[in-house]
Amino acid sequence: MSLELFYIILFFVAFLYAAVGHGGASGYLALMALYGAAPEEMKPTALMLNLFVSLTSFIQYYRGGHFKWKLFIPVALASVPMAFLGGMVTVEDRLYKTVLGVLLLFPVIRFFFFKNVPDEELKPHNTYVAAGTGGVVGLLSGMIGIGGGIILSPILLLLKWTNQKQTAAISALFIFVNSVAGLMGQFTQGIVFNSNMFMYVVVAFAGGLLGAYFGSKKFDQNVLKYTLATVLLLASYKLLFTTA
Predict the structure, then answer these.
(1) In contact, 180 and 142? CB cutoff 8 Å
(2) First CA to last CA distance, the chain
(3) What does the pLDDT look like over 134-184, one tens digit per residue?
(4) Which of 73, 173, 177, 217 is deepest in the core (most CB within 10 A)?
(5) Buried-exposed string 111-137: b where 16+ CB fall within 10 A, e elsewhere
């Protein structure tokens, strides 16, 4: 894969993720893994890109009035310290790619099988369950180098605590705070950024900005979700079943 092709795919990955309320770290990680980057370089790079794209998504969905502070607070309070601890953990290369491949299946399942929850079917959240969920997701997020939104989102929908847009709003800020915590944890162990980091940020931020705008106002969400799910399914297959 040439660097030019990498940038083109990176732009569209950021666009698709932001359009459905995510930061995109799992997509960036899959792309970098297929590009041949080392895990110690992939984790901080993906989290840095997450910061820009997830914040852009959050602002768009927050302005639409879809954010729920009462649910976000217990989830985030438990996840942030665990993401920091996870960021201090080094995972062996092959295991890293296997775990990433499995985690990519979470958004695939969500986008293909989870429909929007009607407001009349929404249930009040359980604070203790929310905090426990946040802690587990935060630890995994820090270890792998993702914001955790791809894991949290299907759980929120399964429990019927949020509808699609509320899920997107909560996930976006959840991704942002976990990405900050994960990066801080990695800084304690020494951190390595890709030499092309500046261009990565520019390309991903441009894709995320356009994706957040068009996803929240213009495009059919189902088309976006099915497209992203298909791409992630292919990436998951490559990571799980390609030994190179």
Answers:
(1) no
(2) 15
(3) 999 999 888 888 888 888 888 898 899 998 888 888 988 999 999 899 889
(4) 173
(5) beebeebeeeeeeebeeeebbebbbbb
